[in-house]
C-alpha cells in the first residue's frame, strides 16, 4: 500500500524528546514517509535521528523555515506537520487522512492535542477580534485554522496558496496558512479522534522574550499579508499607541511583551519588512477566491 502522507518533524536540540515522537510515528497504522528536518542541532540530536531520512540545515531556520525547506521534496498527496515534542496515537495519521479523504473541500485537518496531564491544549485555532490566533479546546467539525503542532494538509493546495512563510521563523505560520487556505476557498476541519500528547514548551519557552517577539511580530505581518487593510492598520496603530504610553502608565503587566525594547524591535522588524510584505499581500490577493472582508466577517471574534 503506497503512502498517502509525508510527516515532517522539525527539530532543534530535541535530544530529550524526539525519540518518543519518532517511535510513535513508527507505530502508526497508516504507511507514510517521515522526514526529519534538523535545524543544526548541537546537542547530540543528530546521532539519535541518524537512522531516519534527515535533512540537516546549516543553521537554525525555525519551525516555519524547516517546513518550507522540504516542501519541494514531498511527493505524497498529504503533508503532516508534527512537533518533535508530540507523541501521536497509533491511529493519529489514519484518522486525519480518512477525514480529508471524506471531505474534499477541506484542505487541512487539525488534531486533538493533549498536554501530558491529559488536558486539552487545542482542537483548532480561532481568530480573535484583534486578529490573534487562539487555540480552542472545544469546537465543532469546522474551525478557522489548524494548530501547526499536529496537522495534515493537502500538499498541492499548500503549494498553490504560497507554501509556508519561512521568514516567520516560529509561530503564526499555521494561522497565516489557514488565512490563505480560506481566502482560496478551502475549509479547515477538526478531527477529534486524531490525538497526540504534547510536551508543550519543550522546544521553545512560552512567555520568554523570543516567544513574545515572534508572536507579536508575526501576528502583525500575518494581518498585513492576509487581513483587510483597515484591520491590519488598526492593530498596528494599537500596538504603536500601547508602546508609546508604556512609560507613563502607572501599572504595566509583568510580561515580556510589555517591555519597551521588545516592542520597539517588533515595530522595527515589521517596518523593515513592509515592502516585501505588501508585495506578498498583492500576490495573496490575486490568488484569492473569497475576499478578506468576508473571511474576517465570518470568523473574527467567533
UniProtKB/TrEMBL annotation:
- The Glycosyltransferase 2-like domain extends over 6-161
| Molecular function (Gene Ontology), one example | transferase activity
Does the keyword Transferase feature in the UniProt annotation? yes
Pathway it works in: Cell wall biogenesis; cell wall polysaccharide biosynthesis
* Pfam families listed in its UniProt record: Glycos_transf_2 (PF00535)
Q: Which UniProt keywords apply?
A: Glycosyltransferase, Transferase
Return the similarity comment: Belongs to the glycosyltransferase 2 family.
Q: What is this protein called?
A: Glycosyl transferase
Its taxonomic placement starts with: Bacteria, Bacillati, Actinomycetota, Actinomycetes, Pseudonocardiales
